[in-house]
Amino acid sequence: MLLALGQAVAEQTLKLRSAQEAKPSEASSPAAVQLLQVQANVGEKGATVLLTLSQSTPYHDFVLPDPVRLCLDLEGAQLGPGLTTSVEVGSPWLERIRIGQHKEPLCVRVVLDLPQTLPYRIEPFAEGKQILMHVGEGASLAMIRFQGVEPLAEPTPPPQADSWVPKSPSPPSEARYRINTDAPAEYRTFFLRDPPRVVVDLMNTRLEEKPQPQEFPEGPVERIRVGQFDPTTTRVVFDLRELTGYRLERAEGSPPGLWVTFTPTPLLPLGQRVVVVDPGHGGSDPGTLGIAPGIFEKAITLDVAQRLVRLLRQHGLTAMLTRSEDVYVSLEERVQFANQGKAHLFVSIHCNAFPQRGARRGVETYYWTPQSATLAEAVHQEYLKAVGFPDGGIRNNRRFFVIRHTQMPSILVEIGYLDHMEEGKLLSDPDFRQRAAQGLCNGILRYLGRPPRLAQGDEERRP
Amino acid sequence: MRMWRILLGALVLPTLAGGCRRSQPIPPPAPPPPPLAGVPVTLYFLRPGLVQGDDLLQGEIRLLPDAKPETVLQALLEGPQSPALLPLLPLEVKVRSVKQEGERITVDFSREFKGFAGGSNFAYLAVYSVVNTLTELSGVREVQILVEGEAVPDFAGVLDLREPLSRDESLLAKP
Q: Which among B51, B52, B119 has the least Cβ separation from residue A350?
């Protein structure tokens, strides 16, 4: 099936540029070279095949006619474990890839079966450990070229002013960046937490030269870094001051590109953020029972909620309670209060109890909508830090009425097991409840991207 | 009155027994079953998670005298036999009435049902221990829970039970 080595120099008519000049340095131990991976990528203008080797080795390329084949011999190389020897690609640029082991002399031959005579180009990367083979219409154009990232300060209209919110919000501006390329590029994106950053990978795209990082003194983006992640992927990293929401859209017009928009929500002045705190149960509904007579969930949740609201206000937030006394409030009323009040966050406080009383302890946080996941995580972690209870996990639940029907990020925190000897005793202690409220407050501040600071007079109370 | 009940028993019991075995055709009138035999019924109880919060429902198969919803609910309220499982409903709860219309069963519990004093996730599992147990019965697809004849908009301060609920397999422990 494979071609004999003797034909190696037969035909080179299709060759536009030889990669011989780019031949990497001699391999130190030729027998140890292995071809580890072969990846093909088919685009609109051509195809690329990326070879990954265990170490660099000399190579030569040549073309054979009838049928048209582009061959690359890797000197002294052996096939790595698990490599498939033939892959059907079936594209207008590349029909199939074949790989074969030759013994005399030792080499691996990579053959690209082409549908017709095509320009090609071969380039080494990563100090010769990777070799990229391009075929297609003007092989040098097979790759999309990265042309830069530019910030655009284009304020978006303010949200509808709301009479219910005490201060009408000033117009927040979104931070937008345009990633320019010379052809529309496929992309993938993800975010990382520590430190907070958003990554945009442009597929089949090349950097002509690595640009300097761009720094921004203000706004959600601190710095933009661009690099060639691998031979076919250009990576753009947005280092953020804090993790914010973001979205990607294809940019209309010329040059082709992508808009990356960071939503400014966590950057609004805290005073314009409305947090609704929902003490569970109340009135005719006492909730669960504590370890001592006369201790009811409804009283514990109300006290923690009131302490939390005071702390949030001390930090400049607008905070409201769904009930501020021992009264019954329906689940629908609680949700309506938050939705009609255009709350930005909703935190429902409950105490847990196990059916076999006292046999379980820990903190559980529930959320439903995806937009609530980061709030759940921030509050859960900060609360655990503050109270030192075991971690009972963050979970999704579609049935809990208040987190299902509120329209803003919302969570339900089971702040501890009231029926557990230790947790029940601690939750019955006002000083501990202050600590609990501080933990919840820290989580909300962390979610909003503000470092928690101790409110006045708190220092002595903390253990 | 007495005569009426006997007649009903003769007519209805074979039909119900046939219904529980599902795939089998309704047997012709047969001699009464041997005294120790029962109808196998699956009751769902709490199987506490090894890791915190991985609590699920697990079925316990029991032989009951019949598979009437009343009988099944009574057995559910009495709790599990396996020491690995825990009851979810308050022991004092009584069933006031059970009504089946088409594929829906409406259960009316006594006021103690509202006195459920567990956390939100256990309230959730408690409700589905009832729903998943009753939807095991043939022809039952949804369950409406009432307390003292009224719909419950806020069970345990977290759940809206005003609509009938259908079976939730995601809460069942894998055997």
A: B119
